[in-house]
Amino acid sequence: MSPREQEELEAILAEPMDYVDDELFAKANAEKKIFDEAPPIPQPNTSWYHPVMEDLGDRNLKSVVNVVLNAKQERALFLQFNYARFRVAKLQKKVGEQAVEDTDAREILHWADLSSRLRDQIAQSNLALVLAMAKRVRHSEMDFADLISEGNMALLRAIDKFNVSKGFKFSTYACRAILKAFSRSGMKHSQYRQLFPTDFDPALEKSDFQRNKYDEHEDDCASEVRRIVADNRAALSDVEQAVINHRFALNRDDEGTTVPLTLEQVGQIVGLTKERVRQIQNKALEKIRKTLEQGYLDGKAEEASKKKRKSRKS
Asked: What's this model's pTM, rounded to 2 decimal places?
């Protein structure tokens, strides 16, 4: 096994694999029924996605055509995805704290890679859902690209939790999850704006005040993220810390400059594939985002408590 595969294996074994169980998984011929007897499943065509994201106009959104899977294809795809995760979880339990034999290691890597590819396939088949839901809500206070980002994360979470055996269409489940994510984002954005109310001043309209305030806010957020990573308040693993530090150049070099690296460059440093680095990066960013949000909420709660004590004294 190569050093890169060993590193990837350690990352997989570091956290338990979640999956949505199905009674079919326990049967002796489960793998044959799930994969060999599955109906043909068309591969998603996402060539439209990047052009649309570069120009988020109504005309572009109307031109999006999504490949819709029928019920049998959707069931087969989700069964394959969860069965792959089930096999990883089963092997994790078998290995435990012992040294991993080469056969088990290669089987873990195989099923983990398959689950990742199937997850991407499901997500790419449903990208148009995010755009459709984002077009429906159109929060005036939120940037449309930010909505898309929130929707994509909600889509991935929905894929991980969806139970196809209940008989519902994934689009129904995913649309609700995406809309809930939009609602939470809108509320957080509104709460943030309420903390900094401003009256219109024509003099400010001609100045760089808003741009400067935005830049200051960006710098504050970036500094807070650096502190979270440096203090490891998000409980990142060693691999996650290395990926985030290299990808976003959180560690300064000798000349005080920052040099962000590409996914491929980071993969060469940590000995992982480009795709695996992307997965680790997304997982680490989600941890950091939750820590940042929790810090904001805790700070707001503390501020409200101080105001309450002040009002009682007065």
From this structure: 0.58
